[in-house]
Design goal:
Shape of chain B: globular
Oligomer: heterodimer
Strand content of chain B: 15-25%
Helix content of chain B: 10-25%
Distance between the termini of chain A: 55 Å
Strand order of the largest sheet of chain A: 2-3
Number of strands of chain B: 20
Low-confidence stretches of chain B: none
Strand content of chain A: under 5%
Largest sheet of chain A: 2 strands, antiparallel
Distance between the termini of chain B: 42 Å
Radius of gyration of chain A: 23 Å
Mean pLDDT of chain A: 88
Number of domains of chain B: 2
Strand order of the largest sheet of chain B: 1-13-12-11-14-10
Low-confidence stretches of chain A: none
Number of strands of chain A: 3
Number of helices of chain B: 13
Radius of gyration of chain B: 22 Å
Structural class of chain A: mainly alpha
Largest sheet of chain B: 6 strands, mixed
Mean pLDDT of chain B: 90
Order of helices and strands of chain A: HHEHHHHHHEEHHHHHHHH
Number of helices of chain A: 16
Shape of chain A: globular
Chain lengths: ~400, ~450
């Protein structure tokens, strides 16, 4: 540690305002504060401060995402192996998965960091930690077969249009990771949905990207039979869906680990429980309503709350995307409304709209746009309850 | 007796004095004392003394240009040794060298009967001539009260807002307290329709002899004893927003001045040379120098110069220079470490020792008193709307929205969001993970608003 400190201290004058690399001061500060957490003396009251700071805040989200990411890696390898009956084994699943997933994550981080540093340097603001989360969340929402150039393009759009043009961290209207995904989703639908994208071929690793046909559970439907039966026939049992060992986006399949991560964030109070619980509640209630009124037992309309909760990307979305505080409302009541609406819209999009089998991304982006309005109305309401003072 | 439940208390344990009767040290006469005009917020002082003037106790030192009948009197006889000026030539300190055998001004003592028969006008006149009027606060700005305004409510709390201030059990133990309190309450009920006297639950067993005077019991935790927090909890209608309040020591002094005819010249201070210890009570001359008070509890004051010395509490206090004097409303000094090492990978440390209101440190499962320090812990960042400030606000405001309105210059919006209810407790700045100076921004906006709208 002393070695790093000495090196940083030695480099410091170069990045000082009159130094050679003064333009890159943001980069230097980001590097230094990563290794050595600063704590300058206070001159204004209150004369002591909480130890929680944004680096820790964001690293807790990363911490909650690590199991999801690891499972995503394993599952990608597992599905690729299963589909081709080759090299089945615990170790080989990890190796295959890592070879497919790690490049996606690395590209996402590398390209995202490039934009972050560029904007920080030109605008002379600090490099913020929020990107560490965005850069990991975005790959987790992608199918494993995604071409790397699309990853680069997507994260560029997410960071530049989703965040930086609005003024950077703290000012973004939309969740940057989902903005990035939405961009890829609508620009390259062939790489993002359909039956061909979910399982990468192992052979394909060494040559061009190749994929194997497979449907996601949300795309399962038929003219007859009950949805639960249809799903089971297609190999999607409840436990299967809950644990996440089925083809799907890298981090989106494991409801178990996503909810566990969500619980961790709720306990540490990094994520607001109102959004997560509101989302689960909204989704369940809407699913029950549809189940009652549905006249098509073979579609997702009759699936009921449990199936809706554990399938698709809802768990990842509600626990990690919807809880991003900047794009969510800032009042408690607003957070309930926001969560409930996301849950409810997710089901509506899934069952009513035949064009999109998965609705959570659009539901969250849609509610992101409404967050300022929700804030405005709930603030008005809270103020009306107070004894005025003016 | 009604109990007021505090919303969003401060949960980090601060040192608690568990003694039934904590020790009180009597300080000797200080070499100099000072009165600080700039300490009286919003007052526009016009000096009435100059350097090397020989003054008597009770001589007016300055008056308020907004209302020339509001004057501040010298607490002691002596020589004006120095007048120091601060930022934009505001008068920082009028330093007086007390003469060894000076005696206080004597007014005519009043009996309880005479006090209760006073008219409102006579009371105000009396308080102004005896120099007590500037010690009364009026909300929402904590300004000196406007004479013409008839207050609906007055709030007195036995414990100062500052958690490091002298304990009520020590203050109440002094002789005559009960009579002084009764007399002061009689005066307050002339000025306001209703008077609330609040005491923290933990002090209740020690203040039995004045129990029937107490109307409300409050939470022990900071900032329950802030009169503005109490106001928020009892407030029924907007008319009560202009409530009066007074620091408990000034309140007792007011009673003493009326009953005995002379204004007490000493004040009880609590001095903590270490932030983890409950501190020592020192009875000393009002306006004593910080170094003088510290030397009465610590043998080597020069060692304390390595630390931040904070007057009137860690939350909303002032960074005191060691040679500066105590301001009128201040009654505590706390020494706290000024430095904290750069911590390798600090953001992932388990943090058994780290004080935090969040649930992200393992210190959450232990409940010991931490070695606090006076540093930022992290870097300044934009607001991420996490809502931690809102969860700590004792008057249930939305500090992040008010802060944004203030920074955008949207004064009316900030007022509409309840900015004037803000008690400036500092808890929002304390918890902010982005290290935004919320309470500082709000305080500046409030001062600005006062200047533009309230003063003519």
């Amino acid at each position: 540690m002393k070695f790093i400190k000495d090196m940083l201290d030695k480099a410091a004058p170069e990045f000082a305002p009159e130094g050679r690399f003064s333009r890159f001061n943001a980069l230097y500060t980001a590097t230094r504060t990563f290794f050595l957490l600063p704590s300058e003396s206070l001159t204004r009251a209150p004369f002591f401060r909480d130890h929680l700071e944004l680096k820790r805040f964001m690293s807790f989200v990363i911490l909650a995402l690590i199991p999801v990411t690891l499972f995503g890696i394993y599952n990608t390898g597992l599905q690729a192996g299963l589909a081709q009956d080759t090299g089945q084994g615990f170790i080989s699943n990890w190796v295959t998965g890592a070879r497919i997933v790690l490049p996606i994550i690395l590209v996402s981080y590398a390209v995202g960091f490039f934009w972050e540093i560029l904007f920080a340097t030109i605008r002379r603001h600090e490099i913020t930690e929020g990107f560490l989360v965005t850069g990991l969340l975005f790959p987790l929402t992608l199918p494993a077969t995604i071409p790397l150039w699309q990853v680069a393009l997507g994260i560029s759009f997410g960071i530049v249009i989703g965040k930086e043009v609005f003024g950077g961290t703290g000012r973004n209207l939309l969740n940057p990771a989902l903005t990035a995904r939405a961009f890829v989703f609508f620009s390259y639908p062939g790489s993002m949905s359909g039956n061909l994208v979910w399982i990468p071929s192992i052979k394909g690793l060494d040559t061009a990207v190749d994929a194997i046909t497979s449907a996601t559970p949300l795309a399962v439907s038929s003219d007859q039979g009950h949805i639960t039966q249809l799903l089971a026939d297609a190999g999607f049992t409840l436990s299967n869906l809950f644990i996440g060992t089925y083809p799907g986006s890298i981090g989106g399949t494991t409801a178990l680990l996503c909810y566990a991560g969500g619980l961790f964030l709720i306990i540490t109070r990094i994520a607001n429980y109102r959004i997560i619980l509101g989302g689960i509640l909204g989704l369940s209630l809407t699913a029950i309503l549809f189940q009652f009124w549905s006249d098509a037992p073979s579609t997702w309309m009759s699936a009921g709350p449990i199936l809706h909760l554990i399938s698709g990307g809802f768990a990842l979305g509600i626990c990690f995307m919807a809880t991003e505080p900047v794009s969510a409302p800032g009042t408690d009541m607003g957070r309930w409304i926001y969560g409930l609406s996301i849950g409810s819209l997710t089901v509506v999009l899934r069952v009513v709209n035949p064009a999109y089998v998965e609705g959570v991304m659009l539901a969250i982006l849609f509610m992101n746009i409404f967050a300022p309005l929700i804030d405005h109305l709930t603030l008005k309401y809270s103020i009306s309850k107070r004894v005025p003072n003016a | 007796m009604k109990h007021l439940k505090l919303k969003n208390p401060f949960n980090i344990p601060l040192p608690v004095d568990t003694h039934r009767a904590p020790e009180v040290r009597h300080a000797t006469a200080p070499p100099t004392i000072a009165v600080s005009p700039s300490h009286f917020r919003y007052v526009k002082p016009r000096l009435l003394v100059k350097m090397l003037d020989r003054i008597k106790a009770g001589t007016p030192l300055f008056y308020d240009k907004r209302d020339p009948s509001v004057r501040l009197l010298s607490p002691v006889s002596g020589i004006v040794q120095n007048i120091t000026f601060g930022h934009r030539r505001c008068i920082d300190e009028i330093v007086i060298e007390p003469s060894p055998n000076g005696s206080g001004p004597y007014y005519e003592p009043l009996s309880m009967d005479q006090i209760t028969r006073l008219s409102r006008e006579d009371t105000i006149e009396l308080l102004k001539t005896r120099g007590i009027w500037p010690f009364i606060h009026q909300f929402p700005y904590k300004d000196i009260p406007k004479t013409e305004l008839n207050a609906k409510l007055a709030i007195i709390c036995l414990q100062s807002t500052d958690p490091f201030a002298p304990l009520p059990r020590v203050m109440i133990r002094q002789t005559g307290t009960r009579d002084y309190l009764t007399a002061a309450l009689a005066i307050m009920s002339i000025l306001a329709n209703e008077v609330i006297v609040a005491a923290p639950v933990s002090e209740m067993p020690y203040v039995n002899h004045i129990r029937e005077l107490i109307t409300h019991s409050i939470h022990d935790r900071y900032p329950a004893s802030d009169p503005k927090v109490i106001l928020y909890q009892v407030r029924k209608h907007p008319g009560q927003n202009t409530a009066l309040s007074m620091d408990i020591q000034d309140f007792l002094d007011m009673g003493a001045c009326l009953l005995t005819g002379s204004m007490p010249t000493t004040r009880l201070y609590r001095i903590c040379s270490d932030v983890t210890a409950p501190g020592i009570h020192v009875l000393a001359q009002k306006g004593s120098p910080a170094s003088f008070l510290l030397s009465s509890v610590c043998s080597d004051v020069s060692k304390l110069e390595q630390k931040n010395i904070v007057a009137s509490g860690l939350f909303s206090g002032r960074l005191a220079q060691i040679h500066s004097h105590m301001r009128h409303f201040e009654s505590s000094l706390v020494c706290i470490d000024r430095e904290y090492p750069e911590e390798p990978f600090g953001f992932v440390a388990p943090g058994f020792e780290k004080a935090s209101e969040s649930n992200t440190f393992l210190s959450r499962v232990t409940s010991r008193i931490y070695n606090l320090d006076s540093t930022v812990h992290g870097e300044h960042r934009p607001c991420i709307n996490c809502g931690y400030c809102q969860k700590k606000c004792p008057v249930e405001l939305f500090p992040q929205f008010i802060m944004k309105a203030c920074l955008a210059g949207e004064e009316e919006e900030a007022i509409e969001l309840g900015m004037l209810d803000c008690t400036l407790c500092g808890l929002c700045s304390f918890v902010c993970p982005s290290k935004i100076e919320l309470s500082d921004i709000i305080e500046q906006a409030m001062n600005q608003y006062y200047k533009e709208r309230v003063t003519i």
